[in-house]
Amino acid sequence: MSRTIGITRSQGRAIPVAAVLALLGAGLMPGPVRADLIGDAEAGKRHYQDCIGCHQIGKGAEDAIGPHLNGIFGRRAAAHEGYPYSDSMQRAGVDGLTWTLETLDAYVENPRALVSKTRMSYPGLEDAGARADLLAYLRRFSDNPANIPEAAPTAVGTDHSVDPEILAIQGDPAYGKYLSSECVSCHRADGAADGIPSITRWPERDFVVAMYAYKKNLRPHPVMQMMAGRLSNEEIAALAAYFKDPD
Amino acid sequence: MTLNRRKFIAVGTAAAASLSAPAVLGQGAGRPRVVVIGGGSGGATAARYIAKDSDGAIDVTLVEPSRSYYTCYFSNLYIGGFTDLDDISHSYGTLAAKYGINVVHDWAVGVDRYARTVQLAGGDVMPYDKLILSPGIDFVEDSVPGWSFAAQNLMPHAYKAGSQSELLKAQVMAMPEGGRFALVAPPNPYRCPPEPYERVSMVAYVLKQTNPTAKILIADPKLKFSKQALFEEGWQRHYSGMIERIGPDFGGENTSVDPEAMTIDIDGMVEKIDVCNVIPAQKAGRIAEIAGVTEGNWAPVNAADMSSTVDPDIHVLGDAAAQGDMPKSGFAANSQAKVCAMAVRGALTGSKVFPAKFTNTCWSLIAEEDGVKVGATYEATDEKIAKVDGFISQTGEDPATRKSTYEESVGWYSGITADMFS
């Protein structure tokens, strides 16, 4: 998967990453990338204070309001046995969502971009540098972190959030109604969800960020990646406007 | 039903009156008229979308001889025991009651393109401003030497679902221990490319449980077939040693049958068989040929609106159309019908017409909870419906993915049939 290298890091942390990127760009990077360059785990530990109320981590951690996060890297979504995941998270796991540096980064940035009806009541963390730190901290509790394949520095700081200009597009519900005829070949127009999730009456923003997550292949479903892949910004906005309140 | 019948008679009378005064013929004073021939995936969708989205501004008539429509998709799952026949049966009451579609259960036997009328077997004549043909397939005569419609009870095709599906299943269940099942596969192009191979999978699934020493033979005129790697991997995994396929490299295209003797002759090798599922070569449903819109076996269309290349007032949908890259499938017909419905409404009422988009996805079941899928998106070019992008299930996928793919297909069935009949 190709990624945009659009790094917006706070000062002080940017230098080692930039140096590694320069080496990568010149094709000079020797051997496995040193995974500890992704962020400052000590700074991440402070950010984790926002998570600890629900997610235990470290020795003796147990499931609480949320599942414990030991060994999260490389695990499939909803794959930790014994924790009662939401239907939406279970579906994401079955579709193939696996927690990598990239998917965790996108999920922490905006949970609903990846899992629309997640029960995690976390607003998201916009600062890419802060996320890199948080993930560096989380990774301490996964096995053999240096060999986690996705932990290449090129993944760090990738901004997954949808451009505010795109989120601001006012969709045309009439156009959305026509476009929706493609969706309702599988998703029931009456909102029933049996094997295929409901897409009606979503908040427009959730609809748009979900479609972009498919467009960027962050969400794993091949049909949806294909369908979203050819929709323009205006078309996604139109669909979001129509499905918010279909007639 | 009473209301429909009255409405139907009224339309018939109007048609008779207009015949004696050819100047009116459906145009002019009344609402514009659309006649749809064929109540399957293409026709039912087109009728529903035109009626629903025009809010009664267009008079829509759907001509379909059957009162119950059995979808070809999922009919293999009936053979495998994963669904009941009733669950793949759909009727037309909602289309009449909810959208005011005039549902006429009769055969269309003639199209007068100059007068713009359709003749029904019952004698009525229906005028149209736009005619939509979605007649599905008919079989090419003598494509499998020895087989004819007269032999369809001895050697079922089961390619128009319903009683033929029931017959084939009953024959499979009654096979002697260690008996032989043969399937004669059709040449391209034909309805639902993976269907013969899903059928083999479902027959194997049933036999593995009830008659595990039975054997399955496929005579195939094609070198390659849809989802081949996925099916062959699945057959190896679930039905090892049970299924043998003879392709054209071993004479599979040179196959004839003798229904009375229950034998199959593949390139001179005559074998006795217990059940023989003959799927002949196919062509557009006969009414397309009668209407004079076919070239060879199929009806060529313009991709942008599915209109016939020989008559702009006739649109052809689904299996019957020669449109380019889309496979002949219920999903494709449903997708094409929406593009057509939008174009027809635009032409008759001036409603807005957006650029055509097409999609197809096709799920197949190989064994219990082992589903696979293939799909693509398409766009209209000047020459044809052209593929844009696609995907296919991978060999070696984990069981959870395959189970989820199957469950997704069940959800899709519910969604797409609601999009046609509810």
List the helices and strands and how they pair.
The complex is a heterodimer of chains A (247) and B (422).
Chain A: H1 14-25, H2 41-47, H3 87-95, H4 101-109, H5 111-114, H6 128-139, H7 164-167, H8 173-183, H9 204-215, H10 222-229, H11 233-244
Chain B: H1 2-20, E1 33-37, H2 41-54, E2 59-63, E3 69-70, H3 75-80, E4 89-90, H4 93-99, E5 102-104, E6 108-112, E7 117-120, E8 125-127, E9 130-133, E10 137-139, H5 163-173, E11 180-184, H6 195-210, E12 215-219, H7 228-238, E13 243-246, E14 255-258, E15 263-266, E16 269-272, E17 275-278, E18 282-284, H8 286-290, E19 299-300, E20 314-316, E21 321-322, H9 330-349, E22 357-367, E23 370-380, E24 385-392, H10 399-421
Parallel strand pairs in B: 1-2, 1-9, 2-5, 9-20, 11-12, 11-17, 12-13, 19-21
Antiparallel strand pairs in B: 3-4, 6-7, 7-8, 10-18, 14-15, 15-16, 22-23, 23-24
